[in-house]
Amino acid sequence: MTAAGGSVSQWGEEQRQAARKGVWRWLLAALGLSAAARRADARAAACDAGAVGEQRTAALLQPLEAAGWTVLHDLAIPGTRANADHVLVSPGGNVFLVDSKMRSAKWPVYGKDDQLWHGRVAMDRDMRSIRHETEMISRALDVVVQPVIAVHNAVVAGGGFVVQSVPVVPADRLVEVLRGNDGPPDAAAAWLAERAAQTLPPYLG
Questions:
Q1: Is 52 within a domain?
Q2: Tally of structural domains, the chain
Q3: Which CATH number goes with the domain that contains 66?
Q4: Is 114 helix (H, G, I), strand (E, B) or coil?
Q5: Which of 69, 80, 129, 189 is most deeply buried (CB count within 10 A of its CB)?
Q6: Is 183 inside any structural domain?
Q7: Residue at 2 is within a domain
């Protein structure tokens, strides 16, 4: 299993290195004269922040593992080039897809007109991604999958809300929300957890 945030961090570093491949590119980047290197560095910085968010979420989810939940990180999704941040199978046999988001504390995250916003920026791409990932994981496992977005740093309006059937919660409430949406123990949970681990391999980029 790959560690949480591993693939996104690796991709960011690959972007940095590609922008500096060759002596001339390296020299321009070192002198601060390469626009390509600046763009790559910006993308890599965003990746690094995303990796930190995934690692923080993984740490928050550890108590669930101790309570019998199966918690998988950084997984390849069959039929796509995307990766799932965190997939969980609860003792009640429910499957959750948790998407970690690290957002600036300068602006709140909120829902308006059934859209997700961070300050004045609509997070449409994030919503399309998690809905698509949820659909593909649901097909692969042949079960209903509940997506959840966990937000780090930024204030989440109302302590949490729902947009397009996707709960959006502050990261420090994630475990509470997951536990609150599980049901009674289900004997099929172990089988489903094994299937998830086999069907969703580690993401290798």
A1: no
A2: 1
A3: 3.40.1350
A4: coil
A5: 69
A6: yes
A7: no
Q: How many CA atoms lie within 13 A of 202 on its CB side?
A: 8
**Residues of the domain holding 116:** 62-199
State pLDDT tens for residues 50-71: 467 688 999 999 999 999 999 9
Q: Which two tokens stand for residue 143?
A: 């079960």
Q: Is residue 19 part of a domain?
A: no
Q: How far is CA 65 from CA 32, 88, 127, 147, 181, in A?
A: 46, 9, 27, 19, 16
The mean pLDDT of 12-23, rounded to a whole number, is 58
In the sheet where 145-153 sits, what is the strand order?
70-76, 83-89, 95-103, 145-153, 166-170, 161-163
Pairwise CA distance, residues 75 & 155, whole Å = 28
Identify which of 198, 181, 108, 109 has the alpha carbon closest to the alpha carbon of residue 145. 181
Beta strands in the chain (DSSP E): 70-76, 83-89, 95-103, 109-112, 115-118, 121-122, 145-153, 161-163, 166-170
Q: What pLDDT band is residue 2 in, cutting at 50, 70 and 90?
A: very low
Question: What pLDDT was estimated at residue 52?
Answer: 73
DSSP state letter for 12: H
Single pTM value for the model: 0.78
